[in-house]
Inverse folding.
């Protein structure tokens, strides 16, 4: 049998299957089952909801190491039972059953009340890999009637993955389009939803891997990899949101970003010289388009040598960065992995002397052409190399004052070779478990981002930073935010940006965004307006473009666009406390910041294939307009009641509505009962001393919970409890509305007042009481109230 792999044909000897059960042992951590041909299956109950399965074909398990798992994740002590039922074993936790058929070791996952979540078709099987040694490890499951699938990171396609097939192999895809595969990132978590609930499968294998959701065979879902172990986590729901939280707990969350990193960011390939950067900055301020960061792409460097400056274009980097800082702009710079081969370049010299570059199997450094010309590439899978790399940031961060770093080309991408990346015989240290590029390729980018994050943080003097990466593997979110790479200025790409961001968020990577307006080609003014309207609801909000088609600043598309652009960026700045709170929930509770409708209500079958609308945080439903010339939109509102953000009209959920969507609006709905915290508009974070936050209170006949998080927005005190996390319980009836507040944390917030903005009350207010004293209806409310009562008569 031949399988096309990497860039040649791999020869295998056909499929093999486990034979019948021979023996088993049960230990605290796992049950190990051996079959008659020495195959071993270990099942680890990781938590009550998660079991991990590992198979060894030859009876020998590799060292147990994963870059994906968060060090902070501690498996809980699971008390599990193994029931020997003669023809099968049943492994039980309090939330999940795992049934192993003794005849063929096939595994069925069930809910505790015995409903099938996932059943094996061929189950685990393998083929010998005659070219590389080892095995092609495979697993196939029965695809259930009506089952839908989600996840897999940045795949540019419909939200529901049913009937599609994918490969994970980090690839630089300039100008990708719908269904291009593979793409930059490799995030092997998928979700399945069927009549009996939802579950997730995290296939923690970094080799080139594949997922098929009924594409090759209609009734089969399978995943396989070109090497390594069959090693996966089965994550029980029953709710998709719970599966997502559990996956995110396994693979981790980022630190809190500085609040400015949630502001609007301006980028282009490239702004230079320094005067141009300053001109862009002053134009932002002059036109009053709020902005917090400006990016320097590769041209700031001296001949694309990382950690250097082009002396002509940027004679005084510190002067420039300081100047920008005074105007409220943070400077971000790009750093690529390729180090120019140049004996007069100290980074190259040092890397070479210390043997830090990736070597091929015969001992030569791997050489590849990228922007600087021929380069060598640091092996970021070695801790000492990461430490060295981290140290290289001293100049940029500590001396020049750069605020954060953008890592690009870290698939790793190479020019002029068919594979677009390293040859497969490159070796990697892999934390002391030396291995080849086949295994290390997909994690190279995330280890670069990790080294970068560690370095930048070290030189930030206790201030938070922003890191952004193009490539990475599961768990990359612990180190960095991401963007979706080289997209194109078309309406189809606007939709892709929408879906990719939702997909990334449910794949553990909430801190994401697209190049607003499109990287390649110039957007029409209409497309630019529609894109910023979506972009402000993505946690990472940046305009970027390739620069070879003219300008892409907000004012480059005529006055109408400038004004609409400003309007939406202003909305973003008003929403900052809401988005920051949502980020905190991601950080503290592992919830995705964006939720596809099916993650909001999986019991509503209408949501299964909807991929335009999504929830941003708990309460804001965003329905971007992604069709050219559309001025209305059919939106599906899930169960609940929703306020049209623009008209304040209240609409029923569980149905479609046709709503207006003129060029200066996109449909946005706020969940009834929600309390949304808002800032005044600022030109940049910290421009104003804000002591009053507005609360948009949306009346509901019933109960709803909202949150508001605050801390110092730039330091690490929050890790020690210096934050304020307020919970608002709203309770509405036909004649009154009460809001109670409880607060966690010990931060003395500068927010002293709330200003209530009451939306949708059934009648005119008669009285407002704060903690039992009557106040004027427009009074500022102390930010530490216990209870507010608003009453009226019908
Ligand atoms: O080969 O640094 O995706 O955002 O502007 C192109 C130049 C390299 C690709 C990135 C893009 C960036 C560009 N880079």
């Amino acid at each position: 049998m031949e399988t096309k792999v990497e860039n040649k044909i791999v020869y295998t000897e056909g499929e093999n299957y486990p034979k019948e059960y021979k023996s088993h042992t049960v230990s605290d951590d796992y049950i190990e089952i051996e079959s008659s041909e020495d195959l071993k299956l270990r099942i680890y109950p990781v938590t009550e909801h998660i079991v991990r399965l590992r198979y060894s074909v030859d009876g020998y398990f590799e060292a147990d190491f994963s870059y994906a798992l968060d060090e902070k994740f501690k498996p809980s002590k699971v008390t599990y039972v193994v029931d020997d039922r003669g023809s099968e074993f049943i492994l039980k936790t309090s939330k999940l059953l795992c049934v192993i058929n003794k005849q063929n070791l096939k595994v069925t996952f069930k809910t505790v009340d015995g409903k099938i979540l996932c059943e094996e078709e061929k189950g685990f099987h393998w083929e010998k890999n005659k070219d590389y040694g080892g095995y092609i490890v495979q697993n196939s499951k029965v695809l259930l009637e009506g089952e839908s699938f989600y996840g897999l990171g940045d795949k540019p396609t419909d939200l529901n993955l049913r009937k599609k097939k994918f490969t994970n192999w980090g690839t630089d895809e300039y100008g990708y389009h719908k269904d291009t595969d593979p793409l930059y990132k490799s995030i092997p978590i998928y979700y399945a939803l069927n009549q009996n609930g939802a579950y997730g499968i995290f296939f923690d294998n970094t080799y080139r891997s594949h997922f098929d959701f009924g594409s090759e065979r209609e009734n089969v879902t399978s995943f396989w990899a070109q090497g390594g172990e069959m090693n996966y986590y089965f994550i029980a729901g029953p709710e998709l949101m719970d599966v997502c939280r559990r996956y995110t707990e396994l693979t981790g969350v980022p630190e809190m970003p500085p609040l400015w990193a949630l502001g609007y960011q301006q980028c282009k390939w490239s702004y230079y010289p320094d005067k141009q950067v300053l001109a862009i900055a002053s134009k932002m301020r002059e036109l009053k388009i709020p902005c917090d960061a400006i990016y320097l792409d590769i041209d700031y460097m001296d001949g694309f040598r990382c950690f250097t400056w082009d002396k002509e274009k940027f004679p005084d980097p510190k002067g420039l960065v300081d100047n920008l800082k005074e105007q409220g702009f943070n400077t971000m710079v790009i750093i690529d992995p390729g180090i120019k081969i140049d004996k007069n370049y100290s980074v190259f010299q040092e890397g070479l002397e210390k043997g830090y570059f990736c070597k091929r199997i015969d001992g030569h450094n791997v050489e590849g052409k990228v922007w600087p010309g021929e380069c060598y590439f640091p092996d970021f899978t070695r801790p000492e190399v990461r430490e060295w790399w981290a140290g290289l940031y001293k100049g940029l961060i500590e001396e020049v004052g750069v605020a954060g770093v953008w890592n690009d080309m870290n698939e790793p991408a190479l020019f002029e070779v068919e594979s677009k990346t390293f040859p497969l015989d490159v070796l990697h240290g892999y934390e002391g478990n030396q291995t080849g590029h086949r295994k290390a390729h997909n994690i190279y980018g995330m280890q670069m981002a990790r080294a970068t994050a560690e370095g930048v943080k070290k030189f930030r003097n206790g201030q938070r930073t922003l890191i952004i990466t193009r490539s990475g593997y599961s768990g990359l979110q612990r180190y960095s935010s991401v963007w979706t790479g080289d997209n194109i200025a078309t309406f189809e790409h606007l939709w892709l940006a929408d879906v990719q961001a939702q997909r990334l968020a449910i794949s553990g990577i909430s801190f994401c965004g697209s190049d607003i307006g499109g990287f390649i080609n110039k957007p029409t003014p209409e497309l630019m307006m529609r894109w910023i309207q979506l972009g402000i609801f993505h946690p990472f909000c940046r305009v970027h473009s390739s620069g070879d088609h003219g300008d892409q600043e907000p004012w480059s598309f005529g006055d109408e666009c400038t004004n609409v652009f400003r309007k939406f960026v202003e909305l973003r700045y008003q929403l900052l406390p809401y988005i920051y709170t949502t980020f905190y929930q991601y950080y503290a509770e592992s919830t995705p910041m964006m939720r596809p409708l099916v993650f909001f209500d999986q019991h509503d079958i209408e949501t299964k294939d909807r991929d335009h609308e999504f929830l941003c945080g708990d309460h804001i439903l965003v329905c971007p307009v992604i069709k050219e010339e559309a001025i209305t939109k059919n939106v599906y509102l899930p169960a609940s009641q929703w306020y049209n953000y623009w008209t304040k009209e209240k609409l029923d959920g569980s149905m479609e509505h046709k709503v207006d969507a003129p060029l200066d609006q996109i449909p946005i709905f706020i969940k009834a009962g929600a309390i949304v915290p808002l800032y005044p508009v600022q030109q940049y974070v910290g421009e104003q001393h804000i002591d009053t936050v507005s609360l948009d209170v949306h009346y509901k006949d019933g109960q709803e919970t909202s949150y508001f998080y605050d801390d110092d927005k730039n330091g690490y005190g929050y890790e020690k409890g210096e934050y304020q996390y307020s919970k608002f319980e709203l309770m509405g009836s036909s004649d009154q509305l009460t809001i109670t507040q409880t607060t966690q944390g010990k931060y003395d917030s500068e927010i002293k007042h709330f200003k209530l903005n009451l939306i949708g009350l059934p009648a005119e207010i008669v009285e407002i009481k704060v903690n039992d004293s009557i106040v004027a209806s427009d009074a500022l409310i102390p930010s530490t109230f216990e209870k507010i009562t608003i009453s009226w008569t019908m």
In short: The chain is about 20% helix and 30% strand. The pocket of MIG is lined by residues 269, 297-298, 334, 408-409, 470, 485-486, 544 (CB under 6 Å).
